[in-house]
Amino acid sequence: MTTRIAIIRHGSTAWNKAGKLQGSSDIPLDEEGREQARRLGLRLMGETYDIVYSSRLQRAKETAQIIADAMQHPHILLEDDRIREAGGGLTEGTTEEERVSKWGSDWKQLDLGIETPEEVVARGTEFLSELVAKYPGKKILIVSHGGFIRKMIRELVPDAPHQHMLKNTSITEILHSDNSWSCHLYNCVQHLED
């Protein structure tokens, strides 16, 4: 039995454009992000998902709601804190230039309260394991965050092209079958190119 999961990165925000690390800061979509979500919703109009999950951060929740509205999705959106972005600690709200200026070029080696990749993968794996156990053979839509998605793809499907930065409102599709994961679509933004 195959469970199909489409994972979407939220639409763009003012902090995305400014190059600021967002982490778990609760930043809203900007107008372009709302338009990206509308276009993705139109792309997905012919699709049927059994359930829609979103991170609790407003940029993901708003993206999920716009998509669900466009798809006329009948189900209530569910939220789960385990699919939020990796916490950035003291680096949230800063640009790379500001981080280097404040902490030096080796800032990634410092203890700045940043959630580790292992911590992100642990909560993400727990969430996905529960999901496939609860909804076997279903089609699930998740709206989450770029860093979270890349870490999970790297863990679940190491040969997928997870090194590429995810674009806002991109779709990545993973399948769970026979206790293994595969990735059939990565970072697709066809809806923004039409």
TrEMBL record:
One GO cellular component term noted in the UniProt record for this chain: cytoplasm
Chain positions recorded as substrate binding sites: R9, H10, G11, S12, T13, A14, W15, N16, R59
Active site: H10 (tele-phosphohistidine intermediate), E85 (proton donor/acceptor)
InterPro entries attached to this UniProt entry: His_Pase_superF_clade-1, His_PPase_superfam, PGM_Phosphatase
SUPFAM superfamilies from the UniProt entry: Phosphoglycerate mutase-like
GO molecular function terms listed in the Swiss-Prot or TrEMBL record: phosphatase activity
Name listed for the protein in its UniProt record: Probable phosphoglycerate mutase
Lineage: Bacteria, Pseudomonadati, Bacteroidota, Chitinophagia, Chitinophagales
